[in-house]
Amino acid sequence: MNIEDTPETWDVVDSKERFRGHVIKVVTDTVKMPRDEVADRDYVVHPGAVAVLALDDQDRVLMIRQYRHPTRLLMWELPAGLRDVEGESLVAGAARELAEEAGYRADTWHTLIDLCSSPGMSDERIRVFLARDLTKVETDFVHRHEEIDMPVEWVPLPDAVEKALMGMIHNSPAVAGILAAYAASVEGFALLRPADAPEA
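The structure corresponding to this sequence follows.
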């Protein structure tokens, strides 16, 4: 059997919007199931996101800490943001987030991993990029709300792996990105897809 997620769409016989917010909306789809049954499925419609695992020449991961109200945690994360600029490529969005949130530019980009963050309740897709050959840059981006006073720390990749496995880092793109980067480093990152690789 080929172990690969594949596109599939089951018939939706009814759909109702339950809530619309600034970023997300919640809908209920009535979906035709096998054996001619139907079932309601509530889920969050999300624009998607990008995240950046920036790795310096000492194999350290750039991490930021941000307050996340739903979890009531100050979470260590990768620079990341919504796919909310019309016509912007995913890698361009990731580069923008890296500059805005951490003040760095990268000359080398690869697709590290693609995630569906919580496929039982949201259609959110996250692409995590590997960014290398970093340069510090100045930006006039104004931080607001949770982004004010975000610390930036450089964590050795093996230490980041240990912290993820010990339950000290919980942010899903950060955990997935850290573990993927560690696994990809074994082959010298040679097996990674290009930055503009299509999403399935």
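The longest strand covers residues 104-116.
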